[in-house]
Amino acid sequence: MQHTWFDRDLSIAGRVMVRDGAGGYDSRLVSIQDPIMRIPSLAIHLDRSVRESFTYNKETHLTPILATVAKALNGDNASDKNIKCAHHPILLDRIAKELSVEVADIADFELCLYDTQKATIGGICNEFIYASRLDNLNSSYCAVEGLINSLSDESAAAEDSHVRMIALFDNEEVGSTSAYGANSALIESAIRRIQSSCSNGSATAFEESIANSFMISSDVTHAVHPNYSEKHEENHRPELQKGPSIKVNANQSYATTSVTSTILKDIAKRNGIPIQEFVVRNDSPCGSTIGPMLSAQLGLRTVDMGNPLLSMHSIREVCGTDDVGLCVKLFEHFFEEFAGLDAKITVD
Fold it and tell me: CB-hemisphere CA count at 13 Å for 286?
């Protein structure tokens, strides 16, 4: 939701390619902590129509302000201003300063704006998390913590007949079609390499591994908004603080099936983890996840699941504190118990 980026204290972060002085290049990460940019909204006195509808041009109205011309031209780095570049010298100087390099050493970069306001616990009962990028850092954190917790016993992995694995992808919000996105050969390549190191030389070892595997596609889901409850299907309204939600869609926007949901529900029930369900209204469009994409590419059993979230895609999103712990617990027990449960399930 681009309109939420107006009037926020912004900065930049990302990757910078730096010359190493020996004819090579180093990939460096940078995050400028100071609020160096802002996208001011237009005063209501100059646009009365904003009372009814806030509209903006994506090309001309979303440009952040970095500095005044006078300050930018009278900085302390006149020696760098003769370097031919596509970006303002004052910005390049700040990036170089953060990395302790010369401006001339910067070969290229890919940087994104971000909100400098820190995440915080809120609500009168301290039960909400207010933060940026909860979609989908929420699920990423829960998966990582769940995997680590499932291996707290050093013998756990050695005694497991399955490989415990998580995959965190880039570019999901723009289609996943990239070298690092889910719609690439990355996950198949990784599984093949893991499988080949463990196989007995069978020509169909990879296919057998896929048939015995199970994927939780974990992406946050839409919590019912108390001010817009009519936007949710009446009997499927996930609430904050009531646990992760399994997502189902008849048009396959989610990859959940009765078989895969049964497995996750069973693990949740035996460990006292509440599970909700989300089904979009028939008269409403439905988002999707990487679940159907990977499930179709690999023929992998998949369930779509995620914690409920308010203000999805806003610069500041909201989730429940309890839901994080419940989701971590669900991942942990899934890793520990899936192999044993799967052996008891028969599907024709």
Answer: 18
Q: SS in 3 state form for the chain?
A: CHHHHCCCCEEEEEEEEEECCCCCEEEEEEECCCCCEECCCCCHHHCHHHHCCCCCCCCCCCCCECCCHHHHHCCCCHHHCCCCCCCCHHHHHHHHHHHCCCHHHEEEEEEEEEECCCCEEECCCCCEEEECCHHHHHHHHHHHHHHHHHCCCCCHHHHCCCCCCCCCCCCHHHCCCCCCCCCCCHHHHHHHHHHHHHCCCCCCHHHHHHHCCEEEEECCEECCCCCCHHHCCCCCCCCCCCCCEEECCCCCCCCCCHHHHHHHHHHHHHCCCCCEEECCCCCCCCCCCCHHHHHHHHCCEEEEEECEEECCCCCCEEEEHHHHHHHHHHHHHHHHHHHHHHCCCCCC
CB 170 within 8 A of CB 181: yes
Task: Map tokens 């419940």 to a residue.
Answer: 326
Q: What is the pTM of this model?
A: 0.90
For CA atoms 244, 213, 149, 176, the dihedral sign is negative
> What gap in Å lies between CA 294 and CA 210, rounded to an integer?
12
In contact, 117 and 8? CB cutoff 8 Å: yes
Q: pLDDT per residue over 218-267, tens digit each? A: 999 999 999 999 999 999 999 999 999 999 999 999 999 999 999 999 99
